[in-house]
Amino acid sequence: MESIQKLAVPIAIVIAGALIAGAVYFASIGRGPSTGIPAAGAQPSVDIKDVKITAEDPFIGNANAPVTIAYWSDYQCPFCKAFEVGGVPQIPVPAAMPTIIKDYVDTGKVKIVFKDYSFLGNDSTTAALYEHAVWDLYPAKFYAWREAMFKAQDEEGDKGFGNEDSILKLTATISGIDAARVKAQVAAKKDAYTQSMNDDRQEGASFGVQGTPGFIIGKQLIAGAQPLASFTAAIDAELKKK
Questions:
Q1: Is the whole-model pTM more than 0.85?
Q2: For the chain, which residues make up each domain, given as ranges?
Q3: 129, 136 Cβ separation under 8 angstroms
Q4: Under 8 Å between Cβ of 130 and 167
């Protein structure tokens, strides 16, 4: 009887752990963010005209492009990496961003505005702070920095690349960026950047963005790392209205 009682405790711990893990897994599917899967349920109506776009929001493309894409992301999100640069073995969808940039951004048809939806840990927050500092100081270098950040992404969460030291080392590799100056900018404007990040996430949530990546194109909300065709169809539909 005593040996059975001794076994009961570790078995109970294992079972409890399994139940907790299962709950976390299914919760992540329900909310959409870490899986790239849209959450179930009705979504509110959206319109890109209702998205607040300010000088604080990094963007690429012609400032007066006929079509604007609002894009909520997290630098630790593997589905954002899959969408932007690819190279995520468990997510076989080809990266859509390079083609969108080549066919629409570089031709002056589309502007992509980057919004923060940092939720995957401290590294997510740190990356977003540095994003704003790079945008403030070196807007012409912003996308090169962003692309390098996603290529360097490793395991989701605070488990490797993404803390301040690793971001500073990466930032120093981007030609034309002074990493020490960026660090000082983060320290000087941390409160303002944090407020902007919080505002972005709250705004996204108000439009039905429940995780990353999330996009608004025209009156369409696109959730997750969808195939390129989902984006080109939405963009082309908007261009026809112009």
A1: no
A2: 1-31, 48-241
A3: no
A4: yes
